[in-house]
Specification:
The protein has a domain of 253 residues. It has 14 helices and no strands. Helix content is 52%, strand content 0%.
């Protein structure tokens, strides 16, 4: 018997793109934007291991549900007591830009363009001076120029919008510098763009259109702080990285932050190792369709790490992760599933199938 998730049950998969932030994820992707991401710890070391903690691009966008209400007064106070400065920020989570693009569509009367489209013209092409009617006009122009392949023109327009305080324009500039996309690769400039977003909007409502931009900036900050940026003032600070992930995970309900925070608890990075807390945060991210979280949660349950051994439920999560995984990118997820399935008794497999059917009905 091979467990599987039906198409109706796959509301959220690793390769999904975001639809309306107020609705479920993994359905229709009207913007068609595909962005590689693994803020949650970079590219994979080996087929049998989950990605390690480092701010590099890796897997495809994860899915997203509407942000959770969160951010208790105690957490908010703790954040403000260690408020961000420009000297601490991180590489942005590539997972999130698909969701952020909805904010672009909302502020534009024209069609949405994929800001991460492949370039079609040299970035150094000259363009006449740009005049913009408004911040939104500058953002719209930046999107058009980017898609046309004129990334130099896109940078000028996005810089204008960013100077007027437009968070998404600043976010995109940060990504372009982080990736060397049409500009010289410069992690410090990326860091400073992301830092400005977090400095200016730490209390952005979790229900606002900019919430994902700001949450992504906090996740980016945490990722940069894991290892720092060599030869700059941005030094490694895993403890503060944990704090940044915790804020984004709690206040914004960001699944990438929840996954990253779980990894820090699981690996004992930036503070004491705490498998129970890791399991809690993996579970929150897994419920939102985060494939890597689903896989590691499933493995923890299956082997009993954290003091809770539930083989059938663990196999259920591993099955969901396997069905949503991309083989070339997530070989370690498939390895975890195959190992667990081979070890599971028939009764565990049958129970996992029953749990899986319940999960699908609950998500419909």
């Amino acid at each position: 018997m091979v467990l599987s998730v039906s198409s109706t049950g796959r509301k959220a998969s690793a390769g999904a793109v975001f639809a309306d932030p107020s609705g479920p994820v993994g359905d229709v992707a009207p913007l068609g934007i595909q962005v590689p991401f693994n803020v949650s710890f970079g590219s994979h070391q080996a087929a049998s291991e989950p990605p390690q903690i480092r701010p590099e691009a890796g897997s495809e966008p994860s899915s997203w549900l509407a942000p959770e209400p969160g951010g208790s007064p105690a957490i908010r106070t703790a954040f403000h007591s260690r408020h961000l400065t420009k000297s601490i920020f991180m590489r942005v989570s590539l997972f999130t830009f698909t969701g952020l693009a909805f904010a672009v569509a909302a502020c534009s009367s024209t069609s949405a363009w994929a800001l991460d489209a492949k370039s079609q013209a040299p970035a150094g092409a000259t363009s006449p001076p740009m005049v913009f009617k408004s911040t939104k006009d500058a953002l719209r122009t930046g999107m058009q120029e980017y898609n046309a392949g004129d990334k130099a023109g896109a940078v000028k327009a996005l810089e204008f919008a960013a100077q007027q305080g437009h968070a998404l324009a600043r976010w995109k500039l940060g990504r372009m510098y982080a990736d060397g996309d049409g500009v010289p690769q410069d992690d410090l400039k990326a860091f400073e763009h992301f830092s400005r977003i977090a400095d200016e909007s730490p209390d952005e409502s979790p229900d606002s259109q900019n919430a994902r931009v700001v949450a992504s900036a906090f996740v980016a900050l945490g990722s940069y702080l894991i290892e720092g940026i060599p030869a700059t003032y941005v030094k490694p600070d895993p403890e503060r990285a944990r704090h940044m992930f915790h804020y984004a995970a709690t206040y914004f309900g960001d699944p990438d932050a929840q996954y990253n925070l779980a990894r820090l608890y699981l690996d004992g990075v930036g503070g004491p190792r705490d498998p129970k807390q890791a399991m809690r945060w993996f579970n929150l991210a897994a419920e939102k369709g985060h494939v890597q979280a689903q896989a590691l949660l499933g493995n923890m349950l299956f082997v009993g790490e954290g003091g809770v051994r539930q083989k059938a439920r663990g196999l259920m999560w591993l099955t969901i992760a396997r069905d949503a995984a991309t083989p070339e990118r997530d070989a370690w997820v498939l390895d975890l599933y195959n190992q667990a399935f081979a070890e599971a008794a028939d009764t565990d497999r049958q129970a996992a199938m029953a749990y899986l059917e319940q999960q699908i009905r609950r998500k419909q």
